[in-house]
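Posting this for the archive.
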Amino acid sequence: MEENQNIDYKRIWKDEYLQWICGFANAQGGKLYIGIDDDQNIVGLKNINRLLEDIPNKIVTTLGIVCDVNLLEKDNLQYLEIVVKPSNMPIAYKGEYHYRSGATKQQLKGVALQQFIMKKMGLSWDDVEMENLTIDEIDRESIDYFINKGVFNKRLSFDSKEASTETILENLGLLTAEGKLKSAAILLFGKHPQAYFTGVEFRIGRFVNDESDLIIQDSIEGNLIQMADKVVEVLKSKYLISPIHYEGMVRVEPLEIPEEGLREILYNAICHKDYAGVHIQMKVYNDHITLWNDGPLPEGFDMNVLMREHASRPRNKNIASTFFKAGFIEAWGRGIKKIQDSFAQAKLPMPTIENRDGGVLVTIQRSKLFSGLYNLEPQNEPQKLTQRQEALLELCKNEITISRQELANKLNISLATVKRDLSKLRVKGVLVYAGSSKDGHWEVIDK
C-alpha cells in the first residue's frame, strides 16, 4: 500500500522516527515499516535482533506507550512492522507534539496544539477558564433573553425565570468546578466580550459585482446569544427585500430569503466558529450572498455528508448546548434538513456549503424575481439629490460622528425619514458609514 495517514515506510531505523510513532499515536494510529524503501521495495535489515529489543524499549521510555513490534520476512529478507494504536491521551516526544495527517507528519504548535490537547482531554475551546473575571461581567438582560427563548421553545421550565444568574450559568455548564467563568459564559452572555475575544464580530457588506464595489457596510458586536437577532434586523432594514403581497385581506411581507433557513445558517456560523480566528463575514451581492466563518468543517465532513443523516460534532460544545436549550438549533445534525426544507418551500436552490480559506463558506442564491429591485449597478448619469438629502450630506461631512437622531433634530424631520434618506444616499454611492455602530463615522464620497 502507498503511504497514507496510517502507513509509512523507512529504509533503516533512526531514533528520530519516534516522532512518526508519536504522530500516529496522536492521530488515528498506524503502522511504520522498517526495512522497506519509499518505492515499497523490501530491502531488509541488519542487526534485526538488536532492533527487536531496542525499539520497544525506546518507545516505552521516550513516549510512554506500548507498541507491537513484529518481525516479518519475504524473499529471505527480514523487516519490522511497528503497530501503533491511537492514544486517548496526548503523547509528547521530548516536549514536542506530533500529528499524522495524510502522508505527512506535523509538529503541533500554538492554537493548533491547544485545540489538540483539549480535544484529547474531551474539552472544547469554550471550556477555558477566564481568570480574574467575576459574575459582574455577565449581562443579566442577556440571561433573561435566553430564558424567555428557552421557555417559549419548551426547552426550559417556567421556573427558570426565577433562577439566579449563577444558577443558570452552573446549569448550563458555564462555570468550572471552582465556580470560575468559562470562556463560553463571556462569549454568550458577557457585557463586553470584544474586550477578551477579538473575533466576536459580525461584518456585513453590500457589493455590486466584486469586492471592489463596496456600497455600505455594518459591524455588529455584542454577545453571541443575541447576535443572530441583531444581524437579521440589520439585513431586513438595509440589505434584503421583503416584497409585499396579500393573502386574502392579510398583508404579508416575507423576507426574500426564507427567514427560518437564514437563521439556521446564522446560528451555525455563530455556534461553530473558531473564536481564536477572525470575524464572521457576510457579503451581499446583486445575485447571491456569501457567509464565511473561521474554522473548517469537522474532519471527514463535506456537502455530501451534511446532506444525509449525520452526527452533530460542534466545535464549541458549551455554545452549541446553550443554543439548543434556547431553541435556536436542533440536536443530531438536523439543521441542514431545516435549511433544505425552508429553501425548497421558497422555491430557491439549496445553499452550498464548502471548506474555504480555513473556514466554512455558505453561498445563497438570491431570487431573480426581485433582481430589478436590488440591482445596484452604477448608473451612467448621476442621480440628482433632493434638497433634504444634500443637507444630510453636508451635516455628515462636517460632523462625521453625528447620530441619526441628531440629524433628525437638526433638520426637524422624523427619525424614520432620516433613516430612509441615509439608505438612499448609501445606495447612490455618495455616503458610507465606516466602523462599528458604536465607534464608526460617516464618509461622504465626492462624485
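The two ends are 65 Å apart (CA to CA). The first helix runs from residue 18 to 26.
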